[in-house]
Amino acid sequence: MHIQEWLETIPAVSIYLLVGLVIGLESLGIPLPGEIILVSSALLASQHGEIDPVVLGLCAITGAIVGDSIGYAIGRRGGKPLLERLGRRFPKHFGPQQVALAERSFEKWGMWAVFFGRFVALLRIFAGPLAGVLHMPYWRFLVANVLGGILWAGGTTAVIYSVGIVAEPWLKRFSWLALGLAVLFGLVVTLVVRSRMKKAAEAAGAGGAEIPAQPTARATVGE
User: Fold this and answer.
1) End-to-end alpha-carbon separation of the chain, Å?
2) Any idea where the VTT domain is (predicted)?
3) Exposed (0-12), middle (13-18) or buried (19+): which is 13, by Cβ within 10 Å?
4) Burial class (CB in 10 A: 0-12, 13-18, 19+), 78
5) Is the pLDDT of residue 126 over 90?
6) Which candidate, 20, 24, 17, 21, places its Cα nearest to that of 128?
7) What is the tens place of the pLDDT at every residue in 18-44?
8) Which of 118, 32, 144, 29 is nearest to 78 (CA)?
9) How far is it, in rounded angstroms, from Cα 19 to Cα 17?
10) Largest CA distance in the chain
11) CA atoms of 95 and 88, how far apart (whole Å)
């Protein structure tokens, strides 16, 4: 069953809780389809009046901020061994290349990696735990976490809801065509993003830079 079709079978309160929980767990560091759930729920809200888009957006924002904060605390306490354990458990998401790429992003951008990481699937999972592992000052992390969570979760909800409202009459007339085009577009975007992430990870590994020792990374991020 398609995610949106499944969401239509559960009450509004459950959708609010589901969105907050899935996004929170993803932000905490567990690979889950938070963005897909959010987009599907926002689109569903545009076609069903019983789902309040404001409440939906607030639940998404809360899940993003709280999840990232918990991930930060876990990363700060667990340190590098935590990333190694996650790498063994989720090699496609926390493998050496992915960790190296994420760390290079943090070294270059600092707190902005947390902010912009909301909009990149890989960094969205890494941001909280990795900021904790690298001992980013909490106030920097908190500012980037809150602003990024509001812009990504709230903005995504608002944009998808608005698009759904505008497109609803057109979708009703060309539902099968729209669905086919949407699926095709989603597949193309997914393949392109995966290809670019793979090339970036390979470039990071080929750049000769091993994952820096924790004291060096801590000093860089803390500046």
Assistant:
1) 48
2) 32-161
3) exposed
4) middle
5) no
6) 24
7) 999 999 999 887 878 888 888 888 888
8) 29
9) 6
10) 60
11) 7
